[in-house]
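ZP: hey, is the protoporphyrin IX containing FE complex queued? I don't see it on the tracker
AM: it wasn't, my bad. submitting now with these inputs:
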Amino acid sequence: MFGMYNKRMTKHLLYYICVSVGLPFMGFADGIVSLGSAVTEIIVALDAEERLVGIDDSSVLSQELSQLPQVGYYRMVSAEGVLSVQPGMIISSEDAGPPEALKKIKNSGVTVIQVPAEKTLAGTVNRIRSIGKALEAGEAAESLLKPVEERMQDPLKPLAPEPKVLFIYARGGGAPNVSGTGTGADEMIRLAGAKNAVDGFKGYRPLTPEALVTCQPDVLLMTRQGLDAMGGEKALWTLPGMQNTPAGKHSRIVVMDEVLLLGFGPRVVDAIDQLNAALKVEK
Ligand code: HEM
């Protein structure tokens, strides 16, 4: 790890020396910028962490990765931010954006590999395979995705009774949102053997007291980061309408790390098992 850190420091030092004395810097020919936490996790799992020269803000997954330049959140990157670290290649989740920024990056001549963003087990398999191909690590990719394929063939049985789970996404000071169908959260709830408490709309909508009371969740599901952003459990249980739901009355909540829960990266099977086990306790 120290060796890797050293090589990376040398590369960056070289970049800063060239820039400060006005010499052209030819870029990190094999340097990768990774856009998306699952993408980054897969690159690390395929033993190519050393090639990373930049990551997006959702990819700060370890002390080592936190030393790398961060180029913005992958759902809203700027082309300038990404190109400022002089990458040779960008590996990006297909849902990175905005599209104009991605277009600008592609037009700059840097190789851009876009990998499937779909938040399903099949999506994880395709993501690992595409990144394995880009890194010429096909064999390692196949062994990484094997447990995911096995879970696709042998999914967990629904819990009995099936708890109704409400996922709440919160970030910064913005209003919290609840997940309808077609999201990563919806898919995780199903894969863990439970039922999404909200099935009347697709995607995310702001959390309202009416929506809370109507969907009558048995359990809430949140990310650690989201719960902190909302001010902790006390703030949650006192939201208007919350005490009129089974989850609120019995203070039932499952909290997981956001990348683990929603990333659909190489740890997705662990994430499903953890959620399933936690729901058994909370039900
Ligand atoms: C810099 C601030 C932010 C960081 C570090 C961050 C980080 C993350 C992470 C780690 C995840 C889980 C893995 C993934 O889906 O990528 C996530 C999910 C998500 N984030 Fe953010 N986020 C930020 C801001 C935002 C903002 C402003 C929005 C709204 C426009 C947003 C919308 C979402 C959505 C919709 C999901 C997916 C949930 C799902 O798949 O069900 N994020 N975010």
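AM: back. The pocket of protoporphyrin IX containing FE is lined by residues 36-37, 57-58, 73, 75, 119, 169, 171, 179, 183-185, 204, 258-259, 262-263 (CB under 6 Å).
ZP: great, adding it to the tracker
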